[in-house]
Amino acid sequence: MNKKVVLSVLSTAVVASMATAAFAKPATGLYIGGSVDKYYSITQFLNNEDQVIDEINNTGFPNVLYVDDQGNAATIGQVVNADDLNDVLKKATLEDFQGNTYAKADGTTYDPSKDSDLTGAPAGDLKVESVSAINASQIEVKFGAEVDKESAEDLANYTVSAAGVDKVAAKLVDSKTVVLTLDPTDVVTAGLNQSTVEVSVADVKSAADDSKAIESFTGKVSFLDLTVPQAVSAKLIGPGKVAVTFNEPVSATSGFLIDGGQYSVTVDTASVDYAAKTVVLNTGTLSQGEHTITVNPDGDKSVKDGAGLFVAKTDVKFTVADDVTAPVLVSATASGQNAVVLTFDEPISGLDAGDVYHTANTEAYRNTAVEEVAGSAKKQWKVTFGNPLPTGTVTINVAKEAIQDNFNNKNASVLSTTVSVVSDSVKPTVTEVKVVNASQVTLAYSEAVVGADLKANYKVTDKDGKTVTGYGISYDAATKKATITFSPALKEGAAYTIAVTGIKDTAVVPNEIDAYTTNITVADKTAPSVAGDGLYDKDTNKIVIFFSEAMNGADLLDKSKYTLATSSVQVELPSTATLAVGPNNSSVNITLPSVVKDANGTDITDAINKVIVGQVRDQAGNKTATVFSEVALDSDAGEIGVVADSAVTVDTKTVQFAVNKPLKTVVASDFKLDSTAVEFAKYENKTLKDGTYGSIVTLQVALPFATDATPAVNTVANPTSVSIYGDKFAGSTTIATSADGVAPAIADKNGDKKLDGKDLAFTFNATGDITDVTVTFSEALKQSTVSVDDFEVPGYTVADLAVNSNEVKLKLSPVVETGTSFKVNFVGNVSDAEDNAYKTAKEITVLAADYAVTSALYVVNNSTNETLDAALQNPTLALDLTTYKHLNTDQRADLGADFLDDAPYTTVDEVQDALDALVPVQALKEINWAAENGDWSGAKVSMFTAAGITGVTDANYNAVKAALENSPNKGQEEKAEVQAIVDEVNGVPAP
């Protein structure tokens, strides 16, 4: 940097200090830190300009502090970038002097730490105090309070308005200062030096309270780097690897010699670390002892900084010696509850998934991923665990021989250190809401969140409290910003409210955002327009002119803005005409006198066919785009058109859509929703969201359609609805297809117009206890919007759920014992595929009677031969078991096999019918077996009754037995044959 530049930078600062002679503490002047550590008064500076300029060049702007005569201080870097010096001069604090002691010209020293007039830095506000250039490739960001390391080093929180320039690292160099490093190669290509860019900072959190973040900041940074970069040192970092360190980031592909060229050397471009300001060289095997690296030797100048300035030819010495010391684990820092950052005393490699563990060296406690921390020169590594770390003090271990340094020295034993882990109990917050334009609003969150892209978690309403539905939401995890895109766009100049709920962070136990509401106003930047067609009612002498939006009332009432015209003449609006502002300031009503004459005295009242409107303003002050606009008063009637994509279902009986013409009448019988006649219709003339003056039409049918219905709006053959211009709808046409704007609802499955246990479905275990409850909705749900938190079953836990289209199955713990009444409550919000959210809390009472029969049938259907008898005798089923009870236990078991073959049974009647059919068959089987085997112990008189055979009594029982045993077809008799034998015993003649 030359003398003129420094003098130019300091000129505005020193003028005010020239009159100060007393040595106040801290004294007025320049405090040069770095490796210089000298104080110069203003006079001493002017008397030693060349020396001071050289020292400033050597130490750099950020290390030179200027103090004015009021004890205010700023670095020279801040002075360079300030539009107004007063913006950067702040009361000097001990921290400003960076721990330096300064030599004075009189041979004494000034130690700021012993200056009673200086205090420590004030706590300050959580904000960006300043941004300034350190050199062409590095920017210093100063915060007013201590900031959180993780968010401060997140590159996504910084934006530099320099196209094609990559950010490579952000390092928190002290609790309030971040150095942002840019790729010097990109900086040279972009020509950033001696230019000004905008630097934006957002979402950096407080170190004291990570629920708080800085306000978004944008400031200007001017780059003026005329300082030649310097090679500072060199060090052997591995076999055949030497790292050369510079005082600022440099780029290089060559430009190095070792020992005058005795050894070959190449630049390891993959290992260049701009943030660490190092270039790594591949040297091959070097002899032990001292060696010299020449940077930018004659004929090979390649090493340069972001300003394009080459390093001067420089010799840097280093020593080669055997390194047999293994790397050491210095510390660990928690990064949330799933990751830690490990710091080693030297660069390491080899660290991999599974190499780091806590508690025990088993899979559950091992790390699953490893990532080098940018700008750490391989000394810091972020390790992520698959399962959360326990809270409290945790010992972190690196497995034996898992890592090695560049000299292949491995850790011979397990390396351990402790880390303090705390659970995340901080709720996410909205840190910024920005209206980008009428179609886009962004919301920034304080941390990574889930659910920010779900429409169900947002509600947008206009000034009248009406819900805005036409929007979609996207979420960028890198920037932690949600973008709401409105289609159609919001109305410019209008106020809206955005409410946010349900969004959670990514903590082990997710924290849910507190309900958040903000009000926004969409800036009106669009020029208004005058509708090309107006109205002229010659019977009342009234003219109506329409505008695209609410207009300035004074302009609308200014008679000089209007000129009447016929096909041949123009006349000023008569002074006797009266003007009135129409609804919403979007129209003007002009009442003409009964006779309007031109300059020749000719009555032109009936011939007026046009109004010329001068330039008028909307309520935001935007003027119409043209100096005058022509409004036709005799336009031919045309066709009413529906605004594209405006039709939407409002509820299960109602569709609403916009048309491009204001209406005079709307007739319900002109329309059908699909094939259903419309019972009710209304309209509201208003300025539409696209700026057109038109109308909102509402149609309603008598019977409800499904919540996911998208009914077509059809017209009849000859519609009679008409616009104020005389336009009509096209006949026999589908003029619109509705979008689904209705949220799902819990279904009234049995149609009794109430929600109770009869509308739910249940899953039972073998004893009839309820294990799962299924809630059915009116349409398919978006699965990502449904969680166990949406439901409560008092006295039970919703342990899990499964979503299948419109059904949500809740698994309960413990089971609901059969015969128990309970409640199922819906307490959350769920959405359909169109993001229509259902948020209505519902309490559904389930009575034991609601599922008793279903439970009993389930037990019957899932019985075994051994358990069926008890299941059938469940009094809930109320079965007629009169004949069934004639069977003994073994016989009932035999019948059960046939009965269960036909399961499942869905009604009690089906069970009864099956028993009524099977009992006679089983009884006949027992009678035949007894006849064949002569054992009647299981076939008493009642068995004949069960088989449907009449006439067997105790008196003739033995005779019947004997007859059956002597029958030629014994053991194989059909029912009719047995009945015939009994009749014969009783002397009943054969038919």
Automatic annotation (TrEMBL):
Provide this UniProt record's keywords sorted from A to Z: Signal
Pfam families xref list: Big_5
Q: Which InterPro entries match?
A: Cu-Rt/internalin_Ig-like (IPR014755), EF_Hand_1_Ca_BS (IPR018247), SbsA_Ig (IPR032812)
Q: Does the keyword Disulfide bond apply?
A: no
Looking at the record, the residues that make up the SbsA Ig-like domain are 425-511
Question: Could you confirm whether the keyword Hydrolase appears in this record?
Answer: no
Signal peptide span: 1-24
Q: What is this protein called?
A: SbsA Ig-like domain-containing protein
Q: What is the lineage of its organism?
A: Bacteria, Bacillati, Bacillota, Bacilli, Bacillales
